[in-house]
Amino acid sequence: MISIPELYAFYRQHPHAQTDSRKLQPGEIFFALKGPRYDGHEFVAAALEKGASYVVVDRPEAVLNDRCLLVADTLRALQLLARHHRMQQNIPFLAIGGSNGKTTTKELIRSVLSTTYQAYATPGNWNNHIGIPLTLLAMPPETNIAIIEMGANHIGEMMQYCDMVNPTHGLVTNIGKDHLEGFGSIEGVKKAYNELFDYLRITRGTAFVCQDDTELITLSEGIPYRFTYGASPEARVSGTVVQADPFLQLQVRLEGKEVLIRTQLIGRYNFQNIMAAIAVGLYWGVPIPRIQAGIAEYTPQNNRSQLVEKDGNTYILDAYNANPSSMKAAIENFAALNAEKKILLLGAMKELGAASESEHRELIRLISQYPWHLVALAGEEFAGISHPYLYFPDAASLRNWWKSQHITGAHVLVKGSRSLAMEQVIN
Ligand SMILES: CC(=O)N[C@H]1[C@@H](OP(=O)(O)OP(=O)(O)OC[C@H]2O[C@@H](n3ccc(=O)[nH]c3=O)[C@H](O)[C@@H]2O)O[C@H](CO)[C@@H](O)[C@@H]1O[C@H](C)C(=O)N[C@@H](C)C(=O)N[C@H](CCC(=O)N[C@@H](CCC[C@@H](N)C(=O)O)C(=O)O)C(=O)O
Ligand SMILES: Nc1ncnc2c1ncn2[C@@H]1O[C@H](COP(=O)(O)OP(=O)(O)OP(=O)(O)O)[C@@H](O)[C@H]1O
Ligand SMILES: C[C@@H](N)C(=O)N[C@H](C)C(=O)O
């Protein structure tokens, strides 16, 4: 078996890790991982054939030639290799955790820091036990600030990520009701994300904290340096929303001046995400005009709070994911929008465990507080709950109904958990 330093020597010659033979490019090192559908060891021969420089396996029978490197556990080897690589870098590493808005905040920060630094950030949503090591191993050598997104669904996971990433700086976007199945309760969510703060306390790091969030302020106590942002005048970087229809505009006090921040983001919940990026930019000395440009340039992608004009309707396409906190934020934001004909097309919220039924009841209660033109719900979680709204077992049947209605002139919020793929309703 080879050791991590030996594996690292191979990686230095071929600095590209790959876990998927279908995407493999010649020269990459292929790690054979076991997943819910496949065992990567089935694709060792294919990876070698496609030109993998090396293949990392944890079964002696999968060693087909001298380009196959045997380790005790391929996933663990990937993670330890990534950790080893990170430890060679003497640059700031900012870790981003939290229930909602991690990817948006990360992308805004990337956009701001890239105006001035060789900033590198997690590609897409690679935020888990496989995505984080792949992120670290894909970091260009010229990087001088790294921004790493961390997505967890059980207690203990954030600390494991911190052990791998060794963040010098950290940011928890918020504490909400995400992944309640794994976290158990909102107390569990708090405990889980507090692990990033624990790590910063132990290592005497720096945290970016939203001053308006009393929970985060309390949880982050004891971190040697806290750089705060928010609406509160007490925050180191303080601002307010001056326009929110449809795109947010903020007025922010920066270095004694009132500065207008234009964005291409909708949803008041994005205020904190934007403020976080401004604070991070200011902390690292990005000049104000570049902070403005970095924020203004960012357009949300991939079904995250996107504004789509289609077939005579204005859609807020927010179908990337859903949990009780982000649903509440999206619905309240939509309810406050100045429009005549508002329609909700909502999918169920997944991974809520024992809280699923009560949270879907609570969602119905929230919806019922506002006057909508129409409400249609998809997903079995809504089936056993009494409500006066249109119900469909899945997104496909909701889509068929929606297409048959030929409604125009409406504002439509489309949101639901990833597995429902609610974007199909309008695509
Ligand atoms: C393991 C892997 O990378 N799987 C990807 C793969 O899946 P596939 O359908 O092929 O099946 P397997 O996973 O069983 O495959 C096993 C391995 O075999 C490889 N393989 C398969 C077929 C083949 O012909 N050749 C092969 O080499 C395969 O590549 C595996 O290595 O493909 C899918 C489609 O592209 C991928 O979706 C799948 O990716 C998995 C889900 C993954 O974890 N990818 C990471 C890079 C990642 O970061 N993904 C993020 C999603 C992260 C996320 O959900 N975050 C949550 C929090 C999560 C907490 C954590 N505890 C957890 O449980 O994950 C959040 O809330 O944000 C992303 O892609 O967006
Ligand atoms: N600050 C926020 N508060 C509440 N909801 C938010 C906030 N920011 C974003 N959201 C909601 O979360 C959705 C997903 O945003 P984003 O991808 O940035 O979050 P995430 O935390 O990275 O999600 P994931 O954990 O799935 O990767 C958005 O489309 C929006 O509905
Ligand atoms: C897609 C994944 N990152 C996520 O957010 N999952 C929750 C359960 C969702 O899809 O709503």
Describe the 3D structure.
This protein is an alpha/beta fold. It folds into 3 domains: 4-78, 3-Layer(aba) Sandwich (Udp-n-acetylmuramoylalanyl-d-glutamate--2,6- Diaminopimelate Ligase, Chain: A, domain 1); 89-297, 3-Layer(aba) Sandwich (UDP-N-acetylmuramoyl-L-alanine:D-glutamate ligase); 306-425, Protein-Tyrosine Phosphatase, Chain A (Alpha-Beta Complex). The protein is 34% helix and 21% strand. The strands form 3 sheets. It has a 9-stranded mixed sheet, sandwiched between helices. A 6-stranded mixed sheet has the order 14-15-19-16-17-18. The longest helix has 18 residues, at 186-203. Residues 151, 321-323, 350-351, 417-418 line the site of the ligand C[C@@H](N)C(=O)N[C@H](C)C(=O)O. It comes from Thermoflavifilum thermophilum. ATP binds at residues 98-104. It catalyses: D-alanyl-D-alanine + UDP-N-acetyl-alpha-D-muramoyl-L-alanyl-gamma-D-glutamyl-meso-2,6-diaminopimelate + ATP = UDP-N-acetyl-alpha-D-muramoyl-L-alanyl-gamma-D-glutamyl-meso-2,6-diaminopimeloyl-D-alanyl-D-alanine + ADP + phosphate + H(+).
Give a summary of the structure in a few sentences:
The protein has 427 residues and is an alpha/beta fold. The protein folds into 3 domains: 75 residues, MurE/MurF, N-terminal domain (Udp-n-acetylmuramoylalanyl-d-glutamate--2,6- Diaminopimelate Ligase, Chain: A, domain 1), CATH 3.40.1390.10; 209 residues, 3-Layer(aba) Sandwich (UDP-N-acetylmuramoyl-L-alanine:D-glutamate ligase); 120 residues, Protein-Tyrosine Phosphatase, Chain A. The protein is built from 14 helices and 19 strands.
